[in-house]
Design a protein that fits this description.
By secondary structure, this protein is mostly helical. The chain folds into 2 domains: 36 residues; 125 residues, no CATH class. It has 7 helices and 3 strands, in the order ααααβααββα. A 3-stranded antiparallel sheet has the order 1-3-2. Helix 6 crosses helix 7. It is elongated, with a radius of gyration of 22 Å.
Length: 168
């Protein structure tokens, strides 16, 4: 009986520490250290196919958060080859690979600056803007690697589209 009571006390203490205290501490640190991203963020891609907007990477899960994930199709998959061919027809034969292949999570909100600039002529024509203005906006919103060395430069597609709407 003594062992059962000790086990229940340990269970209760660990539940409070790891299930309540730890998440609250981490959330508090995130709210202080990363105030803007923790309050309003564009961390997930959103389906956008309207011509005057930048389009995100394709999503194997149609941008749904619950079943998010990659397609798990290998390079010999006929479905993958067909999907890439359809996207190449949509984007053009010189489209960057990231516009032809889905992201690993299916929810990646970023594009490389090159992939965003590849779409710039379409956006400039649709919005009747100077191409230089659209390219300058891409350059302005390009984020560097995290901590200066992790990853590649990237552009958040939602932030880019919101900036385009604000520039009217």
């Amino acid at each position: 009986m003594k062992t059962i009571l000790q086990s229940l006390r340990v269970l209760l203490v660990l539940t409070v520490l790891t299930g309540i205290a730890y998440p609250l501490v981490v959330t508090g640190i995130a709210r202080i250290a990363f105030h803007d991203p923790s309050h309003h963020s564009a961390l997930l891609a959103q389906k956008t196919e309207s011509p005057p907007y930048f389009w995100p990477r394709p999503s194997a899960s149609d941008y749904a958060t619950i079943p998010s994930g990659a397609s798990n199709k290998g390079p010999t998959s006929a479905d993958l080859v067909k999907s890439i061919a359809e996207r190449r027809e949509k984007f053009g034969k010189d489209a960057p690979d990231e516009l032809l292949t889905a992201s690993g999570s299916g929810l990646d909100p970023h594009l490389s600056p090159a992939a965003a600039k590849y779409q710039a002529p379409r956006i400039a024509a649709e919005r009747k803007l100077a191409l230089e203005k659209v390219v300058a906006l891409v350059d302005q919103l390009t984020e560097g690697p995290q901590l200066g060395f992790l990853g590649e430069p990237r552009v958040n597609v939602l932030a880019l589209n919101l900036a385009l709407d604000a520039a009217k």
